[in-house]
């Protein structure tokens, strides 16, 4: 089929879908207009298995996160990573952001430790982001470093080690504010630390007191929220911290509420039957803004590529139903090294956007009316009915309008790039 006939059929299918949705009082054009305005922050670390580009001695990885797979062609430097990202963005409808880790500094072949990084080490990223129109988000890297090898950073009992990580996080916030200033969009700087014990601790309190003190020191310097927003991310367990994690959900929920930071909810950081979709409406009652790390745990915090499953749809529904889109920053957090890494970004990000579209196409007022009338039979019946409405036609139309492939042809682009570029990376 030629491009033109393909577009005609997308158009026509869309018109039918629009009619179908209007029968239940949903305006598809409006849904798409809203969708266009929602940025997703793509995580740089899917592109190189959370490796980063620091010059370092030894091979500290650590941090209790685990990347599995050895698919060929991963980015070996920042230029390659940016080129890979360019391809991913070109296959994803809308305007999106990039979430960087401090370990992706470009230090020109010199070893620069984490407490010495400067905005200048990120000028390659800033120039690229400016040119491509991406906002930047940021993270201190409190893992994969000799001073994190024993499993403690901001809650360390050794004051010298703790100070090192405090300094790193302080610098990171300043670099975040620099991104925000340069790109004229606030940078969300998110702190996640791996700290915890493999086995049953005798003192759960002291590390938490130290973590609270470290965070207070880090946040002491007031930064303009138009440039930098601080977020804190909890976790349930990690490899090597199965029995106790200092930065638990309760710890950071209390911290975020009392200090006015954002709370980051990572979809893989709770008990397997607990969902972050269920937490959004409660936490948003007490927080101004929030960060999401949309991920997919399979049996554990495995960070599988996000797909369009029930939880992803539920997350998007909560954001739309609660009118939270302007207060919630959507970031992705997964890493799969067993498949083409660019395809991983594209699949995961397109799934997130599809979930948002489906949520925007929901007849929420109708569902609420039924609920308020106590008609739970009608609510259930309508919820089931809308599951098969033709959102695929609206999605295709959105992709075509944003000038990205509507169907699976995006994969042809990735395969071409794999053959021409990735295969040469050895
Ligand atoms: C780890 C956290 C954290 C990391 C990134 C790389 O469990 O989810 O967000 O995945 O900082
Ligand atoms: Zn995360």
Largest sheet composition: 8 strands, parallel
The helix-strand sequence is HHEHEHEHEEHEEHEHEEEHEHHHHH
Rounded to the nearest angstrom, the distance between the terminal CA atoms is 36 Å
E-strand count: 12
CATH fold naming: TIM Barrel
User: Ligands in the structure?
Assistant: L-rhamnitol, zinc ion
Question: What can be said about this structure in brief?
Answer:
The chain is α/β, with parallel strands linked by helices. Helix content is 44%, strand content 12%. The chain has a single domain, classed as Divalent-metal-dependent TIM barrel enzymes (TIM Barrel).
Secondary structure elements and pairings:
Layout: H1 3-23, H2 28-36, E1 40-43, H3 78-90, E2 97-101, H4 123-132, E3 136-139, H5 159-183, E4 187-191, E5 196-197, H6 205-219, E6 228-233, E7 244-245, H7 249-259, E8 262-266, H8 277-283, E9 290-294, E10 296-298, E11 300-304, H9 310-321, E12 328-332, H10 341-360, H11 364-372, H12 376-386, H13 391-401, H14 409-420
Parallel strand pairs: 1-2, 1-12, 2-3, 4-6, 6-8, 8-9, 9-12
Antiparallel strand pairs: 5-7, 10-11
The structure holds L-rhamnitol and zinc ion.
């Amino acid at each position: 089929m030629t491009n033109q006939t393909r577009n005609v059929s997308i158009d026509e299918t869309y018109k039918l879908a629009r009619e179908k949705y209007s029968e239940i009082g949903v305006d598809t054009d409006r849904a798409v207009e809203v969708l266009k305005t929602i940025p997703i922050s793509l995580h740089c670390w899917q592109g190189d298995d959370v490796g980063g580009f620091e010059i370092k001695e030894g091979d500290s990885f650590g941090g209790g996160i685990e990347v599995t797979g050895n698919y060929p062609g991963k980015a070996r430097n920042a230029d390659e990573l940016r080129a890979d990202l360019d391809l991913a963005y070109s296959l994803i409808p809308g305007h999106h952001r990039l979430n960087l880790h401090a370990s992706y500094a470009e230090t020109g072949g010199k070893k620069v430790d984490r407490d010495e990084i400067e905005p200048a080490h990120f000028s390659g990223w800033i120039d690229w982001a400016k040119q491509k129109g991406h906002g930047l988000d940021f993270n201190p890297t409190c893992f994969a470093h000799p001073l994190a090898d024993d499993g403690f950073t901001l809650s360390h009992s050794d004051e010298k080690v703790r100070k090192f990580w405090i300094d790193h996080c302080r610098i990171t916030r300043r670099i975040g504010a620099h991104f925000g200033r340069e790109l004229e969009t606030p940078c969300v700087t998110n702190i996640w630390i791996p700290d915890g014990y493999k086995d049953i601790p005798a003192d759960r309190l002291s590390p938490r007191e130290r973590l609270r003190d470290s965070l207070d020191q880090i946040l002491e310097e007031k930064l303009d929220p138009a440039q930098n927003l601080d977020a804190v991310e909890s976790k349930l367990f990690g490899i090597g911290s199965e029995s106790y994690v200092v930065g638990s959900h309760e710890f950071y929920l209390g911290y975020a509420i009392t200090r006015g930071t954002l709370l980051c909810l990572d979809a893989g950081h709770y008990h397997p039957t607990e969902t972050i979709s269920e937490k959004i409406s409660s936490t948003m009652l007490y927080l101004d803004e929030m960060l999401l790390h949309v991920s997919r745990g399979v049996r554990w915090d495995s960070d599988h590529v996000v797909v369009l499953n029930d939880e992803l749809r539920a997350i998007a529904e909560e954001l739309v139903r609660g009118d939270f889109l302007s207060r919630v920053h959507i970031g992705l957090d997964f890493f799969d090294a067993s498949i083409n890494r660019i395809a991983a970004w594209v699949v995961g990000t397109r799934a997130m956007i599809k979930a948002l579209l489906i949520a925007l196409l929901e007849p929420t007022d109708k569902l609420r009316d039924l609920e308020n009338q106590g008609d739970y039979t009608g609510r259930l019946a309508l919820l089931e009915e809308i599951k098969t409405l033709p959102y695929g036609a609206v999605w295709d139309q959105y992709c075509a309008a944003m000038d990205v492939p509507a169907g699976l042809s995006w994969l042809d682009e990735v395969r071409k790039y794999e053959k021409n570029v990735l295969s040469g990376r050895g």
